[in-house]
Every structure is written in C-alpha cells, then in structure tokens.
Amino acid sequence: MDWVIPIFEDNNCIPAPKKPRLDTFDNNIVEKVISSSRVSSIKLDSWVNRHRPKTVDDLVVNSRKIEELKLWLNKSFNNYDSKILVITGPTGCGKSVTLQVLCKLYGLQIIEWITPLDTTIHHGSGNSDGYISFKNPSEVFLDFLIRATKYSNILNNSVNNCDKLIYVKDLPNIFVNKPSIFHDVISEFSENHLKTPVVFVLSDGALQRNLFPNELKIKCKISTINFNPIVHSSTLKALQKIVDKEKNMKTVTTVPSKTVLSDISSCCDGDLRNAILKLYFNIFSTGCAQLNKGEPRDKKGKLLKTSVDMDKKLDIFHGIGRVLYPKKENVVSDPKCEVTTNYKFTHSPRNIIDMYSTQPNFFTGFLQENYLSTFTDIKHVSFGADKLAIADLLLGQWKEKDLSHVYGLSVAVQGLMVANKSPLREWNPMNKSNTYKTNKEYENNSLRIRNIFPEFQTTPRDTFLDVVPFLKIFQSYYTDEQLMYIKDHSFK
C-alpha cells in the first residue's frame, strides 16, 4: 500500500545533526574556555593588591615629590603651622599610594572620610512618637573632622593625636556645587579644632582651584603638592617588574613582550593604574596579544600618537579654535556632479560639546570674548550673537541646570560654527573671559565682606548694597579695616 502515507511521517524532514564529540571541538573554543576560567580564578582586586607598592623603593613617583611629602609630614607632626595639605595631580599618578606608603613607614594611622549615602537620623523607637530628620552634609563632614581630631580609635594602640592623619578624597557634592560652604567649614575647623593633620587628594584641577583659593590657603595656612603624570620609562619599568614577579610565581604561562608593554605604557599617558589594568586583561584575557596592531610606529618601533589620541588631550584653546575657525569638507550628493550641494564640519560639533560638557559656562565665556574678531560679515555676526544670547539664557540658574547647560553649550558651539561662513584667517590673541574675572572678583569681595563684617547675619551681597553705604551715618565703633572699607564704599 504505497499510496497510503501516514500523517505522522514526513519524508522531506532532515535528521538533526549529531552532536560533535569532545575531541572534535575547535581549538579556539578550548582556548577561550581556558582563558575565561583563568580570569575567573584570578580576581582583579586581589591581583592589583598583590602588586601594590609596599615600600618607598616600590614607588615610581618622582623622588622630589616623595621628599616634599616626607618633609611636610615631618613638619606637620612637629608643631608646624601648616597642618592641612592638598595633593593634586592627574588620575593614576600615585598620590594616594605614596601617602599610604609613607604613613606606613612613619607608623601613622590613616582615618579616611567616606561620604555617607544617607544622612537621615531616626528618632524614637519606631512608634508613632518617632520622627525622621535630615542632617546637612556639611555638618556631617565638620562633625567627622572634629571627632577624628578629638577622639582616638579604641582598636588602635595610639594614645595621643600625633600618630594619626585624616585622609579626604571624596567630598560631598554640596561642596562641589557651593565652594563657599566648604570654605566656611574649613575656616571654622582650622580656627577652633585643628590638631590632627588633614590631607585632601584631588584629581580635578578646576575643583582644586574652586575649593582652595589663594585667600583660603593664606588664611588657613594650607600647603600644596602637585604630582605629575608617571613618565613612560617609569611606567614601563613598573610593568616589567610586575611581569617578572608573575613569571617567578608561575601564575602565567606566557608573558607579554617588551613591545606590548611599551604600547600599554604609551596608551595610558602617565596613568599607572590604567596601565596595570590593561596589563591584567592582556595577560589573562587576550593571551598576550599585541596591542594596537597595525598602528603607525616610528623607526624604533614605538607607537606614534594618532589624531584620536590628540583629541583626548584637546585643551581649551584648541577647542575654541575649532569653533571660531571651523573647517569644512565638501560633500557632493552625486559623484558625477561637480557642483557642491552640501558640506560637513571636519571636527564634529557633537564631539566638541561632549568634551566640554562639564564646564559649559567656562567654555562659552571664552567664545563670547573672542568670537567677534574672527568674523568678516556683519550679518554673520548678528546671527552668531543671537545664538550666544540664547545660550546665555540657557546657561542661567535653572532648576534642571545640568540639562539646560548642555543645551546652552550646544547652541553656542553649533550656532557659531554655522554662522561663521568665512572666518578671518589671521592670528588673534586669545582673551580670557570677563565673566570668569567678574565672578572671581565677586567671590573675593564676598569673602572680604564676610571677614570684615562678621556681625551682620546677611548675605555678602545684601551687606554690600543695603548696609555698608549707610554705616557712615551712624556714630559707632569700627575697626580700622572697617572704617577704610566704609570710606571707600559709602555714600559721599
């Protein structure tokens, strides 16, 4: 009965492929499995801590910076006036590690400030009578400094305040947004409670200038040590030392070549922490594959810096130049047509905006100060000035300033690049923004008013506008400094 076909059978079906046996696996798959197991068996944190500098000889920081920090530590614990230190420098240049190694050398206990995630205080026992209050982060920070200075750790054998040091690296956001609050906290702590040395470690240069202006440094006797990026030879030496140590411990079967280590050091630009992380993933993930394969090199085989690397280091002046002197590339819609129908910018406005999105007011202020001398047509000037006016409005004190400031920077950058159709190709000096100068003078005057007239509980602006002009009328006792200030700023 060939004409009868069961409905449960399909003559056209293809049998399922047989599963390959273990011995038929691809070698690449086996290598990937082994590589992933090695990465999971050797955790990143433990590996980095294993190669963390333990002694001064292990440090690759400039020896002069180590001596400066040693000198300050010796003076600060021997009744030296300066008990507050600010260590600045780029990320990964060894600021914190150097401090920790020297504190271990001198037997100093480090008390580190960690910004709390929650500042709520629960009162009561959870019944209806209990309530919740919120403590100001600045008060929490000041309370930490006072307690760390006043009390000793019961788990430590120290009996006095001369063998501990306060370490601050992560500051509350309220200090970043309002540096004046931080100035008040440091001034109060320095005048009334400063007994234990305090070290601030900062990587952002602009943040350091805002939090520690010259007036505050002079008033509170604050010292500063600036660390430089790790040089290429020192980074290469540190990486080679790690590789030799891993080879002696027999934790790796293959080690990177000197060319790979040189490439890692060149890519990190003085960031030793980043170089160590790249070395870890190169050893345990890629099987010591050569980095940046195919990239241009010099005669000695050293990796050359490309335009991408240069963009990462683009400073403020190059960014302003790309906006005020925009370069354009012709784009032809039809390859057979020789007439240009459109254009595009050589340097993407979006990349420029992303690069300076953290300091929109500072960058836009430079544009406003220097754009006029690069235009050749008054109509183009009118269009660009209109866009800057819109940007200035968006850069105001809005509630959602993070979003509005990015929009303001975008309008300023793209508006000027589109408006300046034929920029003036000649050298012009770059002028600093008057807005920055005005804000600096305002901060200095506010600080001076607050120091001269501490008895007035008003803001510095209200004191200057509503109080100082009328003080000359009243017959009262003033200090010489107050009399001089009143004479210069009161009504004639």
Description:
It is found in: Nucleus. This is AAA+ ATPase domain-containing protein. InterPro entries: Checkpoint_prot_Rad17_Rad24, P-loop_NTPase. One of its GO terms (molecular function) is chromatin binding. It comes from Clastoptera arizonana (Arizona spittle bug). This protein is an alpha/beta fold and 492 residues long. It has four domains: 61-116 and 135-152 and 160-226, P-loop containing nucleotide triphosphate hydrolases (Rossmann fold); 232-285, no CATH class; 316-432; 436-489, no CATH class. The protein is built from 21 helices and nine strands. It has helices at residues 27-41, 44-50, 63-76, 95-106, 137-150, 173-177, 179-192, 205-211, 214-220, 232-249, 258-268, 272-284, 307-312, 316-324, 349-355, 360-370, 378-394, 401-419, 434-452, 460-467, 480-489, and strands at 84-88, 109-113, 120-123, 131-134, 164-168, 198-202, 222-226, 328-331, 342-345. The protein has a five-stranded parallel sheet, with helices on both faces. The chain has a two-stranded antiparallel sheet with strand order 3-4. A hairpin with a 7-residue loop joins strand 3 (120-123) and strand 4 (131-134). Helix 16 packs parallel to helix 18 (401-419) and helix 17 runs antiparallel to helix 18 (401-419). The longest helix is centred in the C-terminal third of the chain and has 19 residues, at 401-419. The chain is flat, with a radius of gyration of 31 Å.
